[in-house]
Amino acid sequence: MNFLSRIFSRSMSCQQVEAVLQQYLDEELEAAEVPKVLQHLEACKDCGLEATMYTRIKDSLVNHQDSPNDDSIERIRALAEELATTGIPEGAE
Amino acid sequence: MARRKESKEGQDGFTRYVMPELDVLLRVARSITGNPTDADDLVQDTLLRAYSAIDKFDGRYPRAWLLTIMRNAQINRVRRKRPELMRDPETTLAVVANTDSDAKTPESLVLDQTFDAAVERSLATIPSQFREAIHLVDIDGLSYNEAAAVLDVPVGTIMSRLHRGRKLIRNDLTLDPDFERASS
């Protein structure tokens, strides 16, 4: 097997990349697969653009995160601390 | 007032495993209830259940454990409000998701002409089971395993719903005039 054959045998097709792209973007892909996806995304313009598009969508969704307000956080934290220190009031379950 | 207290180990476990997850619990509760008041009540319910069960918890994957408790608590809450849903948890969660959608789809949310607004608008229009998976993973930051615990579905189902939901958004954006503007 020559050098180019070895390279191509390790690389992924567009179809294979599409199948795992979401896992790659979510950092849920097996570590061994990540370099192969990266290699393909760097070499293939279409898949690279597709990955960029999905990354932008993910970033946009994170920006829309509606964080709980401080009052909610404080109230829940106070309840949790109360449970952790003094237990559960009878009849509260 | 009389109080029921868990063992010292249980109380330590509650502090160690539950306290660090409060922010996540609140965010996920917002996603599955659709409003802050119900979310606070759901988290409170979840904490009480977690406290009662802490002695039986083995310490592995506390977030997934808490999210499973939250999911069951939410199903019970919906069943109390909608008794006709007693037999079908999937339907129950779908109703929850649809309620969420009804609360968040007014055009007033997306008047500005930006990419983010186009994404949000598209998210509101995709089927609820896809939106739910996207909300839990992209917005609430859960792993696939954790999202699967919340929805009580296999991890493969989460992956499939994410894939299909994001593809719908992606395709929707290419047809949206705002996308052209935002990307130029």
Annotation keywords:
A: 93 residues, elongated, B: mainly alpha, Rna Polymerase Sigma Factor, Chain: A, Arc Repressor Mutant, subunit A
What's the helix and strand layout?
The complex is a heterodimer of chains A (93) and B (184).
Chain A: H1 3-10, H2 14-25, H3 34-43, H4 45-63, H5 70-86, E1 88-89
Chain B: E1 3-4, H1 8-18, H2 22-33, H3 36-53, H4 62-81, H5 89-104, H6 115-125, H7 128-139, H8 144-151, H9 155-175, H10 177-183
Helix pairs in contact in B: 2-3, 2-4, 3-4, 4-8, 5-7, 6-9, 7-9, 8-9
CATH architecture of the largest domain in chain B: Orthogonal Bundle
* Multimeric organization: heterodimer
Main β sheet profile of chain A? none
Largest interface: A-B, 37 and 46 residues
How many whole angstroms does the radius of gyration of chain B measure? 18 Å
According to CATH, the fold-level topology of the largest domain in chain B is Rna Polymerase Sigma Factor, Chain: A
Gross morphology of chain B is elongated
Unreliable stretches of chain B: 85-113
DSSP E strands of chain B, number: 1
Structural class of chain A: mainly alpha
If you average the pLDDT of chain B, what whole number results?
A: 78
Describe the structure.
The complex is a heterodimer of chains A (93) and B (184). Chain A has helices at residues 3-10, 14-25, 34-43, 45-63, 70-86, and one strand at residues 88-89. Chain A is an all-alpha fold and 93 residues long. Chain A has one domain (3-84): Arc Repressor Mutant, subunit A. Chain A is elongated and about 60 Å long. The mean pLDDT of chain A is 83. Chain B is mostly helical and 184 residues long. Chain B has 2 domains: 1-87, RNA polymerase sigma factor, region 2, helix turn helix motif (Rna Polymerase Sigma Factor, Chain: A, Orthogonal Bundle), CATH 1.10.1740; 105-184, Arc Repressor Mutant, subunit A. Chain B contains 10 helices and 1 strand, in the order βαααααααααα. Chain B has helices spanning 8-18, 22-33, 36-53, 62-81, 89-104, 115-125, 128-139, 144-151, 155-175, 177-183; one strand spanning 3-4. In chain B, α2 packs parallel to α4 (62-81), α4 (62-81) packs parallel to α8 (144-151) and α6 packs across α9. Chain B starts with a strand and ends with a helix. Classes of the chains: A mainly alpha (93), B mainly alpha (184). The A-B interface holds A 22-23, 26, 28, 53-54, 56-58, 60-69, 72-73, 75-77, 79-81, 83-90, 92-93 and B 1-6, 11, 14-15, 18-19, 22-23, 25-27, 30, 36, 39-40, 43-44, 47-49, 51-52, 115-116, 119-120, 123, 134, 137-140, 143-144, 159, 162-163, 166, 169-170, 173. β1 (88-89) of chain A pairs antiparallel with β1 of chain B, so a sheet runs across the interface.
